[in-house]
Design brief:
Largest sheet: 2 strands, antiparallel
Radius of gyration: 24 Å
Helix content: 55-70%
Strand content: under 5%
Distance between the termini: 21 Å
Strand order of the largest sheet: 1-2
Oligomer: single chain
């Protein structure tokens, strides 16, 4: 009998040692190849449209990024072969399209060398991919992050406070969100803070979900939480208002509070939390517009942009007007790569890169980009909902919702759906700190999805 058991055990071990065909990674390989071809074709069309010739140097640099993207792909084959196959190709394609658009604006403004935003974006893209590769290799089990819940929360708060440290803040910045090291290296600590706070929120909600879902007072058919359960929401609301007031950063405050409310809803399943969150957002918006002049100006620009009695078209109204005119110029199919005039809009490479893309690739191309974001976010939420542990479920959902909310805030701002804020469009806009943070989100989603898919499955028969 013992011999048979030993034989059966040997057979099981041998079967486990057989590597099944990596269908997920094969699918990712072809999607990644397609993304790189589209990115390379975009760079080529930009050169042909704007210069009438092809410079092989920029294509060679873009090829270097392709090598790093495939390096991450092969790392996934080795250490995370069950990771989601769509996340990496979508992030690569969005990054490539962003670099192509930034390069097009650099050509129009005759920026070359290290003074060109596209050169810096290429360097930051390489750093971001390297960081994602390191995260996937080193973070073998994402659940270890749960142990350091409060450390990540403290780190997130410290990162948000860094711009107030004497000697670090950039004096002439419109918002106190940038820090500078030695006057040469500048980054936005808030971009990394949102990841730290997402980890903190996920860990905190896992620990306190039972108390948050306790029975409260039932009013109008909805069970409202007790006052002591409202404490975390009020604290995050106050922190968000503090960011808006002291850092003059409407976007980051909205993003952090929205992320927390979304994760709170996923953790508890109570509609009352969403209603409370929306009520606090509206209350904060009313107070901010009445007290803070720059927030009031944003709302005036939003509501009365084409009223010369309210908004000066040569000053505060110039940027949003030019962005809308660029979208109108592009129309349905766009002017073509290198054929528009996106450089007319201030900050066309960062805050208004959506209108720059809309001008040259049209509404059809812009809708395709929004569909990429939709698939990316849906895959992230799917990763979270498929997970069995609450921490991974909340973390994946929170990070995915952060990307979705950031895209909505930026696209809605430049198209006058909502007031404009100071965030960046994920993966597309110029900005090293934003790109690094977004690729770290990619790495975390890949790690969580691999853990979800590789969970032991019950075999019947």
């Amino acid at each position: 009998m013992s011999v048979d058991v030993a034989a059966d055990t040997s057979v099981i071990k041998a079967l486990r040692g057989i590597r099944m065909p990596q269908t997920q990674r094969n699918r990712e390989f072809w999607l990644l190849l397609f993304a790189i071809v589209i990115s390379g074709a975009s760079l080529t069309l930009v050169q042909l449209g704007a210069l009438g010739t092809v410079d092989p140097m920029i294509l060679a640099i873009g090829g270097g990024l392709a090598v790093l993207a495939f390096a991450l792909h092969f790392v996934l084959r080795a250490v995370a072969r069950d990771a989601d196959p769509f996340v990496l190709p979508i992030a690569t394609l969005l990054t490539g399209l962003g670099i192509a658009m930034i390069y097009r604006i650099d050509i129009a403004k005759a920026y070359t060398g290290w003074g060109a935003f596209s050169t810096k974006q290429l360097a930051w893209a390489a750093i971001s991919l390297a960081g994602a590769i390191a995260t996937v290799i080193l973070l073998r089990n994402y659940r270890v992050l749960f142990r350091y819940t409060y450390i990540f929360g403290l780190t997130g708060i410290v990162l948000l406070l860094l711009p107030f440290v004497p000697g670090l803040r950039i004096p002439d910045a419109n918002a106190a969100v940038w820090v500078s090291l030695g006057g040469n290296f500048a980054f936005q600590p808030g971009e990394l803070a949102k990841i730290c706070l997402a980890i903190f929120f996920a860990g905190y909600l896992v620990r306190t979900r039972e108390s948050l879902t306790s029975v409260g007072t039932r009013v109008l058919g909805i069970t409202w939480p007790r006052m002591r359960e409202l404490g975390p929401v009020l604290v995050v609301w106050v922190i968000s208002l503090g960011i808006i007031v002291f850092q003059r950063d409407l976007g980051t405050g909205t993003l952090i509070f929205g992320m927390f409310v979304a994760m709170l809803y996923v953790a508890t399943g109570k509609t009352s939390w969403v209603l409370i969150g929306l009520g606090l957002v509206l209350a904060g918006a009313v107070v901010a517009t009445q007290v803070l002049s720059y927030v009031h100006g944003r709302f005036i620009n939003w509501l009365f942009l084409f009223d010369p009695g309210q908004v000066n078209p040569e000053k505060e109204g110039y940027q949003p007007m030019q962005g809308l005119f660029g979208l109108a110029h592009g129309g349905l199919i766009g002017t073509g790569w290198g054929q528009g005039r996106p450089e007319v809009t201030p900050l066309a490479h960062s805050d208004y890169i959506i209108t720059s893309l809309g001008e040259e690739i049209g509404l059809i191309g812009l809708f395709a980009i929004l569909c990429l974001y939709m698939v990316f976010v849906s895959r992230g939420i799917r990763i979270g909902l498929a997970g069995q542990d609450d921490f991974g479920k909340l973390l994946a959902t929170g990070l995915s919702f952060t990307i979705a909310l950031q895209v909505f805030i930026m696209v809605g701002g430049v198209t006058r759906v909502i007031p404009l804020t100071g965030l960046t469009t994920p993966f597309l806009a110029a900005g090293g700190s934003s790109l690094v943070a977004n690729w770290l989100i990619v790495a975390l989603l890949l790690r969580i999805s691999d853990a979800v898919r590789s969970q032991p499955r019950t075999v019947i028969g």
